[in-house]
User: Fold this.
Amino acid sequence: MASEHYSIFSVLREALRGHKGWQPQWRDAAPQKDYDVVIVGGGGHGLATAFYLAKVYGIKRIAVVEKGWIGGGNVGRNTTIVRSNYLLPGNIPFYEMSLKMWEQLEQELNYNAMVSQRGVLNLYHSDAQRDAFARRGNSMRLHGVDAELLDQQAVRKMVPFLNYENGRFPIHGGLLQRRGGTVRHDAVAWGYARAADQLGVDIIQNCEVRGFRIEDDKVVGVETTRGFIGAKKVGLAVAGSSSRVAAMAGLRLPIESHVLQAFVTEAIKPFIDCVVTFGAGHFYISQSDKGGLVFGGDLDGYNSYAQRGNLPVVEDVCEGGMALMPRIGRVRLLRHWGGIMDMSMDGSPIIDRTPVPGLYLNAGWCYGGFKATPASGLCFAHLLASDTTHKTAAAYRLDRFATGHAIDEKGMGPQPNLH
Amino acid sequence: MRIACPYCGERSLDEYLYSGDATVRRPDFASPTAQADFVKYVYERKNSPGQHRELWYHAAGCHAWLVVTRDVSTHIITAVEPAKDVALGTASSMKDTA
Amino acid sequence: MARPANSPSRDPLQPQRLSNGGLVDRSRTIEFTFDGRTYKGHPGDTVASALLANGIVLAGRSFKYHRPRGIISAGSEEPNALLELRTGARREPNTKATVAELFDGLEATSQNRWPSLDFDVMSVNSLLSPIFVAGFYYKTFMWPAKFWEKLYEPAIRRAAGLGRAADVADPDLYEKVTAHTDVLVIGGGPAGLMAALAAARSGKRVVIVDEQAALGGRAIDDAATIDGRPARDWVRAAEEELAARPDVTILRRTAVFGTYDGGTYAAIERVADHLPQPKDHHPRQRLWRIVAKRAVLASGATERPIVFGDNDRPGVMLAGAVRSYINRYGVVPGDNVVVFTNNDYGATTVTDLIRSGANVVALVDSRPKPSETVSRIASATGIKLLNGAVVTRAFGKKRVSGVTVRTQTGAEVKLLCDLVAVSGGWNPNIQLTTHLGGKPAWNDRLQCFLPGALPPSMSLGGSVAGDFSLHKALSGGAAAGASAVALEGAKPITIVVPQAADESDAITPLWRVEDHAGKAFVDFQNDVSDKDIELAEREGFRAVEHLKRYTTLGMATDQGRTANVNALAIMAEITSRTIPQTGITIARPPYVPVALGALAGHHRGKSFKPTRLPPSYKWAKEQGGVCVETGLWLRPSYFPRKGEKDWLDTAKREVNTVRSAVGICDVSTLGKVDVQGTDAGIFLDRIYMNNLKSLPIGKARYGGMLREDGVLFDDGTIARFGDHHYFITTTTANAVRALQHMEYCSQWLWPELDVQIISATEQWAQYAVAGPKSRELLQKIVDPAFDISDAGFPYLQVGEITVCGGIKARLFRLSFSGERAYEIGVPARYGDALMRKLWEAGREFGACAYGTEALGVMRIEKGHISGPELNGNTTPHDVGLGGMVSKTKDFIGRVLGARPGMLDPNRPSLVGFRPVDRSARLRSGAHFIAQGVEATAENDDGYMTSVAYSPSNGHWIGLGFLKHGPSRIGEIVRAYDPVRGGDTLVEVVKPVFVDQEGVRVRG
Assistant:
């Protein structure tokens, strides 16, 4: 396994010998007969879980099995935003823990994921929206999270390039979380993979789970395209495929899979320094370190496993963009793509045991999964290692729908496509 | 995606709203297991890849609720029926299978 | 090097312009500037062809190393020659010189260089290239952590990007069109034209689309011969025939960029990009949504380079592009040319070059034995043929000055040249076949990916299907057109395929030259070299997607059209796998980059969303009403009068007037739904939580609607006009969703009920007339036949009446303000008139008009819930309406509303608040913290939802949700509002601030 330490010195050393000495960042492991824990899903959450299981909880024999190549799901398809500007007490501490972990991540992993705390600004366009943001900002502050409510003047100073003159919905101000920002998404998967690999985790690519072996009502391993792999515990971290994979264990989840599109333009000289979210349309935007405008909007709105969306949403999102920033009219859309979101019925995630002993679930991330990666990994690892819920993720129970404790940030009810 | 509304003809996706699974039916409120039944009905979904029967609403058209048979992996639509007919058991597809 | 002696005389101002040939109009000369210098070109030129005509090859700098780069292609695949086009508000970054058409006065500027294209300081990066390899940044810039945002990232961002977006709003218009057609033909080359002819002659509606200004595709680029005549003549004839048919639409300068579900294709038409600016009222570009029963994809193919040392030197150009410049634009891009190829097509470039007077220094063919085609060309032209040889490196810096060739024997020779025409074979333009998930299939004979599974109702014609020869393209196109017709259920007319050459498509793969010196680029724009691919492989990034993401290969503005397959092949080579084993590359839309303005169309500025105006809007504006956005509505929020210093002043006066006299407010925005049918009562009983069965005819009742999960969704009034006739109102915000919900219930849940539902929001103008004198005012309007006295028309009475001498109207004795009040409704066409009548009639009572501000104040004074309390998370119990919830009937939300979490006594519930210091201001969004405890999340007891200055009380009041609220009346808590610096002591009170007994509503 790779053990070299990354630094400017290692880069210089390798530069002198034509970069011939670099090792694979993670081994392409073959499956062993059995493991203490098998994580299904080599995305951000699965890889992070494996890393924390090994690093924090001292579990030795861990495998991550991935159907394709690691990081190919939502961790490599999102718009890279990290933030903890949530409203509800069930969510804020969790996402704040995640944000704190992002702040330490690169040192922890020895991998530069370009965590950039450039600020996340949510605009408001009416008094009612302002007050709703005030409620949220105050809630954040009560949880020790940074939040500032800006008036129009302050917003104008920060992001002068918005349409303040003839907008259909005038910009009155914004809720700013300065510690929010962006992270280079692919690097998160790779960084966790490399760090987990260094701790002995087997990352097994091109290995699709086809079923669970259940003996005496307990999961004892997974049937895969590369044979049976025994496991004392199995954790699912398969995002948009959660329902499909859980069905192999006879479970029916409070989840629908929906497509969310993301967009990037040609690279242009940077002028947008923070993340801006339009409060009167479906649009949010940031600019990457390469210069591309990275933006998105709402779900397409229909159940889908196709990783692609349709034209009406493309148009809708660009309308939002032009309404907010009419100067980008001649900037060109370079690419748009879709990811499959595991939309839960209340818009909040699930990190919990399942009714099948030995099978654990990490799902329902909706489109908030990326920013949750570190905390999700840690809390899921905690659950897998100790069979107890991590206190920060205590609200993310599977039975909360049965007991009436939904965590519904948007207040849209059991309608996954509206969260 | 284009959906052929039985009343209006084929129209673009942006006239419609998707509203979830059409295979679950509202349980009896008076049943002793009503609460568990309603939890399943409201929250739990099969959500498998492949063919779904799902509810759509012709929001920017005739306001009909429709049951659309659609493959969620390919987005190919194979049937569109008025939800009312499906609910009453009078939809043509149901007659066919009856 | 000298120009060859045999070169024909040329225009000294455009030294590389040929004296004849091509589609440019030499009768007109137009001027343009590049980096401030003026050059000349002709109509029909692109910026690239005009620059080449002027002998300019250096057009840009690369992204990372700032290496000088030239024009490499003649189409939208161009990775290098990206310019800032135009200036000011129309400045357009990253415009491909190979696509931008020349117009008089065009201004173009090179990008990503400082201070000039010729001398770019940032090219120092090139010296650091041993460090700046793929992914180096993942390994460094980590210490110390806080330096990333402060130091490293700003430096990276300063270097990032290529061109600059404009600094001001785009002044141009964009429009959208939806077109329906039987057959969409994508590509106007020989195959596309044949398909269009076949379909059109069979009577089908046809839309044919081509990216270029002129149809003809490679038949023009290659100066081919069809039916013994120059291809351009055949193209012109085909075009004339198509244009003459009424059912054919020809879209030039239009690129189909996306395949979407249901036979929907998106295309972008460059309506005015070839003009200095759009004509008046014309769009700059037009977005086409083309709904096609069948599509014929005839999108052609893109040539790929061969990877060798310093293959990015300006003057190294794709062979097919060299032919395009000669044959389409009448420009020969160099005088002494080395042709480097691994296939027969590349070799035929020699013929065009010689015809245009260039000196072909050598034909370097990597194949060990000359093919039949190559032998024929060599003997016909007498050029130097080097078989089994490869170009290992180009030299020269800002322009290629020669190449090193390794011959079949391994000897290295230097050849001097100013142009290298390279052909590594062709990649069919299969992108549109993959947008719906179709996986391409590798073809070993042709050494390229062909479309795999096609989108439903698409067929292929021409080189996209691997039919590279002109003969095959023409016949393949005809067959595709005919099959589209047949699949549409019509009988295709047989079409005669014209005569054309069946050129050889022989190729022997050569992806990169082994043991080359210098840097060998695979992705030019993003500076990805073969060494970067090797590094990626070494570090485990072997999956294609890993490779792309790690090296940024294929991510640039050309989407890797000249790079992806080469990279895949090199990775296959390194890992000793076949190309299909290594992977496939799937394209994402758009096929060509599309301006965001075009995708947005008219929906910007004030037209971003529709604006809904209430019936009295015009009158309200006349009265000086200040309107605000309420969802899509523009509603008057207050009606200021002279001397009032702000909205609060006005709202106070309006409230006082209503409470002491009478006020009028337009409440038409409330959702209004007419419900009829023999089961209408049963139906309403199932969708409202409270009992409606007992509602008598002529009465109204307040009702609450839940979602099935037991959360309060909406509230409003239900009025009963007859046995089977009800009329309900919803909140303004939920009008659309509530109607949708009701239709869901009636059509899907209970289709057996006889009930009909229709929205009447737009059909009825409705005004609240509120205040002690409201009845007196109304009596002036209501026809005398109707008794509206308190006895004859008591609180909650409703009735169908007439006003103003016979106009039908509805009267509701409802009150949101807590005063004696009515809502009077008339058909919307009388709305404006009724408001004017009411206003006139109200004068003697001192009536005022009031807006949403005063409306809000009065409902808070009465403790009525509204939007802030109906936030999608509250239950009837939370808002103090638990008592209304029926225990005897089934209704939406009943069962799940009884889950333990929904009835938890710890849920915050609705109470009122007033500041302990009566002069203090309250703010909604503040959180409640008990006194004497720390302001932390654990001690968060709830939040303020609504506040108002209450003129009736003379101080601010509020509503909010507080844990155990009703049992804490009289307690003092903190209203903690750190985001606005607020921390106010408030007293918990009952959520009613005026007329606690509720007597005033009854008059």
Remarks:
- The mean pLDDT of chain B is 94.
